[in-house]
Amino acid sequence: MNSTQRNNGFLPLEAYAALGNGRTVALSGADGSIDWWCVPSMDAPPLFDRLVSPDEGGCFVVAPDAPFTAEQRYREDSNVHETVFTTDEGKAVLVESLNSGPAGRLPWEELARRVEGIEGTVRFRFEVRFGTAADTVSPYLSHSANGIIFHAGRVLGMILTSDGISREVEEDQHFAGSFTVSAGTREVVAIVAGRDEPLVIPDIAVIDDRIDVSDREWREWSDAVSYQGPHKAHVRRSALALKLLLYSPSGAIAAAATTSLPEGAGAGKNYDYRFAWVRDAGYTIKAFLRIGAEAEAKAALTWLIEQLVHNKTRVCYRLEGGPVPEVSEIDLPGYRGEKPVRRGNDAAIQHQHGIYGDIFETVAGFVAAGNILDNQSAMLLAELADECADCWRQKDSGIWELPEKRHFTMSKISCWQALARAVELAEGRHIPDNCRERWERERDRILEWVEDHCWSEERQAYLAYPGADGLDASVALAVRFGFDGRDKLEKTIRAIDKELKSGPLHYRYTGMDKQEHCFLACSFWMAEAKALLGHREEAEKDFQAVLDLIDRSSGVYSEMAEAKTGAFWGNMPQGLTHLALIGAASTLADGE
């Protein structure tokens, strides 16, 4: 399907680009429609929600009013995005940004869209429809001496336009107008918005200039990325995608910017990922350290430690901190008609042993880069090592957050990883070493347990859990963790390829081909594992094959993709996908 054409009201996910400013993210489609934007933060209710409600949802459209083709791209090393529209009469480019200022993030939301004429003449229409938050608010307009103000529940703001734009409709839920550009001319339309706060309303010319200010800020940040290895462009783009998911008010890392985008058709596997997972935070911190983004790594680690101190050990937290809300279902049609649409996540009440490994691997990488820990953090880590040593024998929900608790192989390996790193940190005098000998003994007991219970001579692989019939692709991470048993890990990697690989991609674990599509992070993990096991040429080939299949968008990736077509499924931008890409590329670079 053409990326500018809607099927039953929906664009393919790969037709969306992400705009962001360190607090929220908007998804802009190839047809000029912004279909998702939560104000003022990623986990707030959406002002625009056409993504999950094609007929009644809110949107912000800037597009030619004649048939067109579109080409999407980000500006180089920037999160300012461009869409080039071509019609029979001419060509124009839509430049769009969630603006920031020269001193960083603005204290209001400023969504700016500028149209520049390139060739001939192109007539555009613009349209703003406000969402009703699943019929819980009724947007309306009010008039003041300073202009027309829109209200959508607790969100308020103004729509600003340059002089050449004609406003033809100004109704409570619907703004619309038109304008024409020719070679060398430009017009700007923008939304300034906030939630329960007084708003500064800049002049439209200032907003226009700030698009280029934002572009310079993104480029300056990218210039500081130190990665110079293979696939540099993809690593930088993934770093920019992760930067969009970094919630700057707190330092939290959102797993994704959306909720309820389905992982497959008809399975009901639609989840809210607008929260911060310990796993994702840990992997992001390591990725930022590998590419030289120390400030972001420090902010994310500080947030993580604060959550562990004040909110106990949890799988995930709200972006502002604290427990994730209970799951509730929202009465909306859902993307591609796939219900339910959810708010909240059941992972919040689960226990996953993987968080111990994630925390300690993160801290180990932080101090290995020459950084230091404060006393509170050091004491907390020693307590967490004791907690891990006490509970590793218990069942948990595993990395895939399954409803049934089991002795998942990867969970045990994560506990081994946590205690192995804790011992190393204690030996380096980064954390108290009072219980170091106990951690060593428990580490070795976990290794023995995994060898005795999780290895299958018949399958020549580590099983997903003792007695399981199938495999788990996340075991590929054990290679990165330095888990003992290189020969068995090599055999497990080959077994995973044989059983879970489809084209260049991989399913998460046995049986998922009937419920969902391939999990992109798994394929990057597999490529990294092969490189670490000494198969660099094969790893490079696998890595490139994944990129060749999915590299059909502006450069932001979803959680999953179809094995044959590369079509995107699941929430996006998906932090774990971009993290895995950076990890695999960095490992390939280390081997050069």
TrEMBL record:
Segments forming domain GH15-like: 230-566
Q: Which InterPro entries match?
A: 6-hairpin_glycosidase_sf (IPR008928), 6hp_glycosidase-like_sf (IPR012341), GH15-like (IPR011613), Trehalase-like_N (IPR045582)
Q: Does the keyword Hydrolase apply?
A: yes
Hydrolase among keywords: yes
GO molecular function per UniProt: hydrolase activity
Which positions fall inside the Trehalase-like N-terminal domain? 12-185
Membrane-crossing ranges are none
Q: What is the lineage of its organism?
A: Bacteria, Pseudomonadati, Pseudomonadota, Alphaproteobacteria, Hyphomicrobiales
The record's annotation in Pfam families points to:
Glyco_hydro_15 (PF00723), TREH_N (PF19291)
- List the keywords (alphabetical): Hydrolase
Protein name as annotated:
Glycoside hydrolase family 15 protein
Organism, by scientific name, is: Mesorhizobium liriopis
